[in-house]
Amino acid sequence: MISWREGRVAALGRAWRGAQELTVDVDGSPTKALAYPELTGEPRVGDRVLLNVTAQTMGLGTGGYAMVVALPDRLPADPPPGPGHLVKARYTPLQAIVLGADEQDSPHHEALREADSLGGMPVVTADLHSALPAICAAILADRLGTRIAYVMTDGGALPLWFSRTVAGLRDAGWLAGSVTVGQALGGDLETVTTHTGLLAARLILEADVTIITQGPGNLGTGTRWGFSGVSCGEAVNAAAALDGRPVGALRISEADARERHRGLSHHSVTAYGRVALASADLAVPAEPGEFWDGVRAQAEILKPRHTLHRVDCTGLDEALAASPVPLSTMGRGPVADRANFLAAAAAGRLAASLIS
Length: 356
Hints:
5-stranded mixed barrel, Rossmann fold, 356 residues, alpha/beta, CATH 2.40.50.140, 8-stranded parallel β-sheet
């Protein structure tokens, strides 16, 4: 199940919040690797490292990285005693203890203990992590100064530190903060469930609007139900249960080679049409042309449970171009697959219009 390698750090590469790129010499071969210093300690040139190369050797979606498991000759010191007993990545060799915003030792416990409402806050749900900057771009283009929180579920990457997108959005001031829920970890706040994650975004981060997606990476099996983006529909249910206003970003593509993802993706049809039992406001770009006519026809299947909104996309291309982080989905940018990013931005515009 795991392919192990041992090597020595030859060079340090890029670093961003919570992550450090490395070049590791493995039997004379340079290997691209990634370390999370919060888990492994700070790597240095010359350190011996243990690597998990399983996904890398199989060409799976870890950005081409081998993952640093440990610096066995220079283990980090034990963390100081303190509050926090939430275990994430539970019962794995790298399980980590964090302080949950919703646990008894947290200074936020009292605020969340009986919390039960988002007070109508718009909650934008999206299938893929790559939708995050496009949604933010539209919200801030229409309502500069909006406090946006990001809630990351555990359907993709578990460490939020893997995401250069989140790091870049934080550095640019586009995000007020992040919450990692379930088995995910590394956010500004940690919570046990999606529900307490949304409440923490509203009550602790004081968000005007919250965006919820899985982390980077997307697991799919080519089956109707076997894809991690099913959590998109579950997020609609959570937001609605807490008196939030679910706003759905549809997964749309004009460039995907797979027929099931052309136009309106079958993943959106399943997540919103079958998994989401509560009503959501779904954004459909009001763009002209045969392609968009076809998308709107496909989206009709999501009525009457959901309300479809034709969103005027004037100015959204310019908003997307202002993103402080690169826009990319499945290796395609806005030029190659404009429809994908426009659909995400349309959800952001719709959410901005619903902020009270």
